[in-house]
Amino acid sequence: MNKVRSLDDVINQVKDGMTIMIGGFLGVGSPLQCLEKLSEKNVKDLTVIAIVNSYPGGNFDLAPLFKQKQIRKFITAHSGTCPEAIQAYKNGEVEIEYYPMGTLIEKIRAGGAGLGAVVTPIGVDTLVEKGKEKITIDGKPYLIELPLRADIAFIKGFRADTLGNIQYRGIAINSNPVMASAADYTVAEVNEIVELGSIDPERVGTPCIFVNAVVEGYPIAEQQALYRELWIKSGYLHPKAE
């Protein structure tokens, strides 16, 4: 089965009110062209699950979705890096639901594995436990955390074959693999698409069984230039740095 699709085809799967997962960490390892298309389509009332918010400084990654009031609820571990999200929260335009980062990852993993819940001591006797069931195991209290799933997950890989096996590069492996298994429909945006058999099985980070569609994003050189320009503009990288 050839799972290669156009960006327009996969974005047309997104409807108002859906829950979507977005891979990446502060804009690194994020499905940039899928996010651009989501912004263009202007779908509304989305619940977005992402480990942290967008790249610091705004106007990139998830930021346009907040600016255009497309996100109704944001489930995350940290949201303070995005000026647009902070402003939307101050205006009462978005609800933010926080979890400790490790707990959030485990909730997503549980959703992908079909588990009924995970138990964790993180957050016991803090604000985190509000509204949650507690149990005692071997004399120690734990919180019961329910799984998280999404209608659609947008993940980012380096390379994919036509069947949907995904190879990652660098720290793009952050939240993408765990999200791939926790959605009803998973879209993998990659820098390049190769023929089946071109990826060494030992380099497959997400097997094709978890991927419904593959789309081609920025070529790797263009992606690197984009990030370099962003980091220089934000002051995180000196213009002469290699």
Kindly provide the radius of gyration, computed on alpha-carbon positions and rounded to a whole number of angstroms. 18 Å
Mind telling me which CATH architecture this is? 3-Layer(aba) Sandwich
Task: Describe the global form.
Answer: globular
Q: Share of helix among residues? A: 25-40%
Hey, roughly how much beta strand do the residues contain?
Answer: 25-35%
CATH H-level homologous superfamily name: Glutaconate Coenzyme A-transferase
Task: Determine the CATH topology.
Answer: Glutaconate Coenzyme A-transferase
Distance from first to last alpha carbon: 41 Å
List the helices and strands in order. Answer: HEHEHEHEHEEEEEHEEH
Number of distinct helices? 7
